[in-house]
Amino acid sequence: MQTNPNSTEIELQASSANAPATAEQTSLDADQYQQKMRRRKEVQAQRLAERSLEKGLVIIHTGNGKGKTTAALGMVLRSLGHGYRVAIVQFIKGAWEPAEKAAFSHWGEQIEFHALGEGFTWETQDRERDIQKAQQAWETALRFIQNPEFKLVLLDEVNVALKLGYLNVEQVLAGLNQKPTDCHVILTGRGAPTELIERADLVTEMTLIKHPFREQGVKAQPGIEY
Fold it and tell me: By the number of CB atoms within 10 A of the CB, which of 32, 46, 59, 71 ranks highest?
């Protein structure tokens, strides 16, 4: 039976493909190139064989660039495709009906989706209520984190709630310590605290290079931002 490609192997292959060709590579004939790639495949197979551990990961998507939630939703889709149960809890967001909630509704009971914020701070203008809503969202999230039926839990914009002081990092770290060993938890949002980054297994920082809102005055658009 053919197995799915290992994502680490794909990333390493892409990294190699993006590197400029050396003089040696450009001078190789077809047989020499094939032999070189065969040796590389053997090295990669050995690396993968030495890394056989599986564990539930704490994953952080942070940074000022766009795509933090989008990347996390890609992992949600993969998990659903494997038949796993997934929970999404959105902090801050919730003043509007998110399109992703409608898209994932077709998966029925396999996914739990809760948008429990009431919008940005300049919209709510009520810090005490914002704190209350964030704490309620965290209590909901914690129930999913502790529940062994859920393979993946996405805490969307929880880093922003931490940055604004609606949650404290100690309670989030304590909650992560309660997850089952095979449960993955993704935490998205700008300004992830150092303590959370140190606890995480996988951290990705999205870097902003250009954005149409800033450079061109293009407003948020359906299908792109929401």
Answer: 59
